[in-house]
Amino acid sequence: MAPGTVQLNILGWNKKLRKYVKDGQAQKAMQLFQQIQQEGMSPDTFTFVQAINACAGLGALEEGRHVHEQIIQSGCESDVFVGNSLVDMYAKCGSIEDAWKMFKKMPS
């Protein structure tokens, strides 16, 4: 690592990701989500929630579906926060059927 270079752990990445989403910079958030993976970091539930929220903000259904596939592969789909974000994203992207399917999968 070069002098002065700071290596972020997943918590640091999540903090930056959340700030982009909160500030309405969903495109930057999605770029950061891709960078996180390129850096070899494994997204956690918080990372996925922010990525899904960014997709919802962009109305990016196909990108949201791709993130959803990653969530399934990671085993995080049963997390209530991830599930809520997926329902919200599908609804905001106009896929009410997918939103309903996710809602029905959520633990009661």
Automatic annotation (TrEMBL):
PPR repeat segments: 9-43, 44-78, 79-108
One Pfam assignment: PPR_1
Keywords recorded for this protein, A-Z: Repeat
Protein name per its UniProtKB record: Pentatricopeptide repeat-containing protein
Species name: Sphagnum jensenii
Organism phylogeny: Eukaryota, Viridiplantae, Streptophyta, Embryophyta, Bryophyta
